[in-house]
Write a structure and sequence with these properties.
CATH topology of the largest domain: Methylamine Dehydrogenase, Chain H
CATH superfamily of the largest domain: YVTN repeat-like/Quinoprotein amine dehydrogenase
Structural class: mainly beta
Strand content: 35-45%
Number of domains: 3
CATH class of the largest domain: Mainly Beta
């Protein structure tokens, strides 16, 4: 009997021992899973966490900063920063400032000597509660480090038949956010960080240039976008959060859209229908606001759809994640889009409604669904997912379940994707590993594949007949691969990373533009060298430290009343709470995460209980063994519910939502308020 009691005791401990296993954490391209904390009404507030400058070279000084606030004015026990697995104490930007009720800025300065990812978030405690910033499901990543300062950007036109440059046009420090050729190859529309250009491809000088008046600093992953109608008569672009529609004959916009100046954020991409009747924009960090009206500060991320006859949108769709891409069917009847964290889904819409025809399950655990492309008739759409969960998906507009999925080697990010108008072929390329593929719609197995060793491929287009793809990478090269051939048929060198590519529908021309946008937040090609038999990151000896221009500061003050009434909306109508949607979606994510980690140990413990119970029953013939088994299973279920911790996790999501709905006060270097903006 003593032996039996000992066995039961050991069985009871099994789940505790199994579930004590640490979850892996990585700082180089893998998942970084940070345990949630419980935020209460007594917790402090951390807001406006960031790093400045946001991107740049090594040997430049970067400053991490966050504002600490406490409604009771309590001083922090600590303000610290998680940085690549270590905790670093932060210091006050102004040692004399102790106004914790209004907000005190804390900073940490850093000079990188090697290229690589830098994962960070902020945490503070006032002794009775804790708070975090710059983390949702995983830490933020920054600064984004490059070998180049991107001072020699350009647009190039390539003749497909000869594989030679036709002409190149310099844009200097202006990153290229999009290139778009008319179907006949006669016109090329280009969007840079602050300008729109229209070219006749027969001439290397623009027909006209439009200055969008963008005052934001150049650089970042949210690049804007441009597209052109099939005949080149209409051009649609978004720069700095403002949308513009042009006719080809004038640099004066037909209309622009900024939602009565209450519009924020920028676009990841835009699209126009073949006939130019419809346009759409996939926004990041955007949204609109009715000042002073509780529940109408809708500064979440938004997908916008227009009839080009009117600058006011036909409809909008809002969700809790950046819209990373958008694509329209030929006549604009259908639209495909994809989202980032925490939504991470594929979407297909009809032009007639902002109710999705397809809203997929979450396609990744912790990374954006970066690309979306739809066929001319809207029946098929393909999507590309990011690192760790890197994959190509094919969907039919009639089902929320994908037709097939192709996981990329090592889960590398797919940030370059295309589909032929008939939907028969899909082209895709990866960042890590430099893989490029052509697929048939009928199979997840590539019909042609290539690898560009030593390069990350961030730009791609596929010809309308699916016979070839053009890809561009961070080795500054555009390569043309034909289906069935092992080597590229042409290779063209540009001045900077290739970020944008478009092929004219007639196959005559390939346009390309340079940019670092698509390469943001990715560990590109390894910079490791061998030292004493081990691979370590190559470091630079900084003979001089680059001092950036002073940052123009903003401090964010929380309007708790409005924050609690964050409402979703569709076409101006409130339709439930974003918090409720987040909680529902978060439960799905929690269960997936639980099954992936703790769940396997729970199942193992259950099987152990069952097997031992059967063995004991067979040997001793005692029915009460089954009663013990049932009791242990009940305990196991209770333990499972406890481990999920839904309240803590949902509180974190709610906190993230509340932190996004704030009032901003613009201040000068002396701390004097110069402008108040309600978002």
């Amino acid at each position: 009997m003593k032996k039996l009691i000992f066995i039961i005791f050991i069985l009871f401990l099994v789940p505790f021992l199994a579930l004590a296993e640490d979850k892996p954490m990585t700082n180089e391209g893998g998942y970084v899973t940070i345990p949630k904390i419980k935020e209460t009404e007594n917790s402090p507030i951390l807001i406006n966490g960031d790093v400045y400058p946001f991107w740049g070279p090594v040997c430049q000084r970067y400053t991490y900063s966050v504002y600490y606030k406490d409604k009771e004015g309590r001083a922090p026990e600590y303000v610290r920063m998680y940085f690549n697995g270590d905790w670093l104490d932060m210091e006050k930007a102004d040692p004399k400032n102790s106004n914790y009720k209004s907000g005190v800025k804390y900073i940490y300065k850093f000079v990188p000597t090697k290229i690589g990812s830098n994962f960070y978030f902020f945490e503070a405690s006032n002794g009775v509660g804790k708070a975090r910033d710059s983390i949702i499901d995983s830490p933020d990543n920054g600064p984004v480090l490059f070998e180049s300062g991107f001072l020699n950007n350009e647009v190039v036109l390539i003749d497909k038949k000869s594989g030679q440059l036709v002409w190149r046009y310099p844009t200097d420090e202006e990153w290229i956010g999009g290139v778009a050729l008319s179907d006949d190859g006669k016109y090329l529309a280009v969007q840079s960080w602050g300008y729109v250009y229209l070219f006749e491809t027969a001439n290397p000088e623009p027909l006209w240039i439009f200055d969008a008046g963008n005052t934001t600093s150049i650089g970042g992953d949210v690049k804007g976008g441009i597209d052109i109608s099939a005949d080149g008569s209409k051009i649609f672009a978004v720069i700095g959060g403002k949308a513009f529609l042009f006719n080809k004959n004038s640099s004066e916009p037909v209309w622009d859209y900024e939602a009565a100046e209450n519009f924020s954020g920028n676009a990841h991409n835009v699209a126009i229908s073949t006939d130019g009747k419809y346009v759409a924009a996939a926004m990041a960090g955007g949204g609109e606001c009715t000042p002073g009206v509780i529940g109408h500060c809708k500064n979440q991320d938004v997908l916008i759809f227009w009839d080009t006859q009117n600058q006011e949108p036909l409809w909008k769709y809002q969700t809790l994640g950046n819209f990373h891409d958008v694509s329209l069917s030929s006549d604009g009847s259908f639209l495909a889009s994809s989202t980032g964290c925490p939504d991470r889904r594929a979407y297909i819409f009809s032009k007639d409604s902002n109710e999705p025809l397809v809203r997929s399950e979450m396609l990744t655990r912790d990374c954006p669904v970066h690309k979306a492309q739809i066929s001319a008739d809207g029946s098929l759409a393909t999507f590309g997912a990011e690192s760790g969960n890197g994959a190509v998906f094919l969907f039919n507009k009639d089902s929320p379940n994908y037709l097939w999925k192709f996981p990329t080697p090592q889960g590398s990010s797919v940030r370059a994707l295309g589909i032929t108008p008939d939907g028969n072929y899909i082209g895709a390329a990866t960042l890590s590993g430099g893989y490029a593929y052509i697929f048939s719609k009928d199979s997840a197995e590539p019909i042609s594949s290539w690898q560009v060793k030593g390069a990350a491929l961030g730009a791609l287009d596929i010809s309308d007949d699916g016979s070839y793809i053009a890809v561009g990478g961070n080795d500054n090269k555009v390569r043309i691969f034909e289906k069935g051939l092992e080597l590229p048929i042409a290779e063209i060198t540009l001045n900077e990373y290739v970020g944008e590519i478009d092929i004219s529908a007639n196959g005559q021309y390939i346009a390309a533009g340079t940019s670092g946008s698509v390469y943001f937040f990715e560990s590109l090609v390894s910079t490791k060298v061998e030292v004493a038999g081990e691979k370590v990151e190559a470091e630079t000896t900084c003979t001089e430290i680059i001092e950036p221009e002073p940052e123009e500061e903003t401090i964010q003050l929380t309007d708790a009343t409005e924050a609690e009434e964050v409402l979703s909306w569709k076409d101006g109508k409130e339709e439930g709470s974003l918090q409720e949607e987040a909680e529902k979606d978060n439960w799905q994510d929690i269960l997936k995460d639980f099954i992936y980690h703790e769940g396997r140990f729970i199942i193992l413990a259950f099987l152990v209980f069952l097997i031992v119970t059967i063995v004991l029953f067979v040997k001793f013939k005692k029915k009460w063994f089954w009663l013990i088994f049932i009791v242990l299973v009940v305990i196991l279920i209770g333990l499972s519910i406890f481990l999920v911790r839904p309240v803590e996790r949902n509180l974190q999501v709610e906190s993230d939502l509340i932190n996004k709905n704030i009032n901003k006060v613009q201040i000068n270097k002396d701390g004097i308020i110069i402008e108040e903006v309600v978002e």
